[in-house]
Amino acid sequence: MDFLVFNIILNEGVLYLDTTKIFSDKSAFAYMYKARCYKHLGELEKALKNIERAQVIDMSGEMYNYSYWKANCLYEFNRYEQALKYINEAIIFNADSESYTLKGLCLMNIGEYKQALNVFFRAIDTAKYDTKDVLYWGLALTYYHLGDFNNALHSINRSLLYKKDSENYILKGDILSALNKISDAKINYDKANLISAG
Fold first, then answer.
1. Ranges of the chain whose pLDDT falls below 50
2. Which of 165, 121, 159, 162 is nearest to 137 (CA)?
3. How far, in Å, CA of 31 to CA of 157, rounded?
4. Is residue 137 within 8 Å of 159, Cβ to Cβ?
5. CA angle at residue 15 from 11 to 130, to 5 degrees?
């Protein structure tokens, strides 16, 4: 059995786990946690390096979908083209709704809106309840960029059924503004501000 010692360290106001004190260096789990810590600290290259170390240790690939996690890291750092390469690999191994969601978001961010719509629709059918808000938010934002504000409004309303957060209300405000429904837009911006002030 592998035993790990985690040190909690305060670095620039961020608590993270230091997994350097590992009794066995054969723990993919430890390196994945270390990768997540580096991601939160804004250190992309170190995050990716630790994912690769975990992947080498876990030769079976059973513990994690490493391509997904590489794509996820790259997406967080706005490297959408690179993220697409890995998310396409991830989908080959596991075509789940999370992977399709990430692919749709990448496509949307590089301006491939019609492809993004197709991917989001594919993901919605198999999505878990707790990921549907992101999918419908992505759909709404994609429709918004395409200038299809009615479908954007329908999609953001669906997203709000799953999660009433400030991002959803801000986007709904933007869509309503585009539809020239200014008073309704203001109501949604106010809701977003209340949630943010929390």
1. 1-16, 19-24
2. 159
3. 39
4. yes
5. 135
**d(C-alpha 33, C-alpha 68), whole Å:** 15
- Integer-rounded Cα Rg, in Å, for the chain is 19
**Are residues 101 and 120 in contact, defined by beta-carbon separation less than 8 angstroms?**
yes
Residue listed under structure tokens 């967080």: 76
Tokens of 162: 């799953």
3-state secondary structure string, 53-122? HHHHHCCCCCCCCHHHHHHHHHHHCCCHHHHHHHHHHHHHHCCCHHHHHHHHHHHHHCCCHHHHHHHHHH
86, 64 Cβ separation under 8 angstroms: no
> Which pLDDT score is estimated for 25?
55
Q: To which residue do tokens 């954007």 refer? A: 152
Q: Which of 110, 116, 114, 67 is nearest to 88 (CA)?
A: 67
- Which has the closest alpha carbon to 69: 58, 59, 54? 54
Q: Using CA atoms, how far apart are residues 124 and 89, in angstroms rounded to an integer? A: 20
